[in-house]
Prior knowledge:
By secondary structure, this protein is an alpha+beta fold. The protein contains two helices and four strands; from the N terminus they run βαββαβ. It has helices spanning 15-31, 70-78, and strands at 2-10, 35-51, 54-66, 84-91. Strands 2-3-1-4 form a four-stranded antiparallel sheet, with helices on one face. A hairpin with a 2-residue loop joins β2 (35-51) and β3 (54-66). The protein starts with a strand and ends with a strand.
Amino acid sequence: MNKYELALVFKPQADELIKEEFEKITALITRFGGTVDKIDEWGKRRLAYEIKKHNDGVYYFVTFIAEPDAPKELESRLRIVESILRYLITVVEE
Length: 94
């Protein structure tokens, strides 16, 4: 099992919808056999450059432990979520 960090940038919209989508993503992590260690919510921040005609984004960082094939499965699901502007999954070196 490896330790990963998932960085998410959501479109700036209603907080209820963002929290609902985020809950679905954390449920996906556990569904693929992972465990969520830490959730860091940064909130709404200004983007460095415009993405899909948005200047602001809502940032979340999730640290989780999962099998090596879990990030690939998670990434395939994250691609189709319309409320996500950007995402990045990285391996955390200890």
